[in-house]
# Entry
Amino acid sequence: MARIVQKFGGTSVKDIDRIRNAAKRVKREVDAGNEVVVVVSAMAGTTNQLVEWTQTMSPLHDTREYDTIVASGEQVTAGLMALALQDIGVDARSWLGWQIPIRTDDVHGKARIERIETGELGRRLAAGQVAVVAGFQGLGADGRITTLGRGGSDTSAVALATELKADRCDIFTDVDGIYTSDPRIVAKARKLDRIAFEEMLEMASQGARVLETRSVAMAMNNRVRLQVLSSFVDVPGTLVTDEEEIVEHRVVSGIAYSRDEAKITVEHVADRPGVAAALFGPLADSAINVDMIVQNVSADGATTDMTFTVGRADLDRALAVLEEQRKTLGFKALKPDSNVVKISVIGAGMRSHAGVAQLMFKTLADRGINIQVISTSEIKVSVLIAADYTELALRALHTAYGLDEAG
Ligand code: ASP
Ligand code: MG
# Structure
């Protein structure tokens, strides 16, 4: 007997038929004698609609009310899933975040889980009842309902798996696993049987949208065995696991891309100590994340250009913050560019292999693609290029690193 968390994403519970279909996957685990916790997202599109209504009602809304509204999508699917299970003879009960409770801080709209009181849930599981938990929500320190940030049901699932010491956490989605690159763009992309936590973390944070980044970090820290699989086709998915469990040795595991970036060049800032701090301090104070950075060589010895990226959604705010500092910083011009894409080559094997970045640069150079900004980590090389070259760059790199599907 095992204890399993099964999480169904929005497309897997999109309508009544799909909820019935998902319930069958749950029943299979129950029939095999396992204890099952089901975590559900809202029906696909529902959360977007709820966010839109909130925005329309009040563009600068009170985030406590935002949470009251957007958390409702998961309440509906939790109840429907419990009914679908009961209909096929499975003892099931729905649970909202506050009923368990899943305790969070009170950062409404992006709350963090602090503690889950699993006592009652554990007793019900032991008695053979399936717990259907509304994902994405919790009970804030202020006693009000909170949500965990978009895509947060993955985190709900991993947090429950951690707390309940589950043997496995299955994430059901509309793709059948993690691919070496986006199969909609790279036709030769392959499904990976396994991927290391660290690699998955980079893939998720570099733009692969299958798993929410926070949930991967949490699974990694708590050693939760994660599996990503399709709720529509019955094939094995991708296991996200410790590096040591991966037998196939490869240097690069995947190539991700993100169109969520925007580039800002600050022209002619003084080339003296303290300038970077003066530039990035106010951005940090405004909670704007800066990702890639280059400082260009100083042509005249007195001033230099700084280029960096921020999230595209933060671009206007970043420009406004910098404009306010124009006097202090003394720059000449601010040049924004959102027609860019970040391409990342990811692989744990990079730690022990040289030349990975070089192959990336050469492959792009051979296609005449100009690299605007570069950043690296231990297991990742990212470049910023013009968005028009996204497809060409992804395909060329996929081939260059030997990731293309054989035959
Ligand atoms: N329904 C929420 C969203 O769309 C949470 C989730 O699906 O993970 O962001
Ligand atoms: Mg999701």
In short: The radius of gyration is 23 Å.
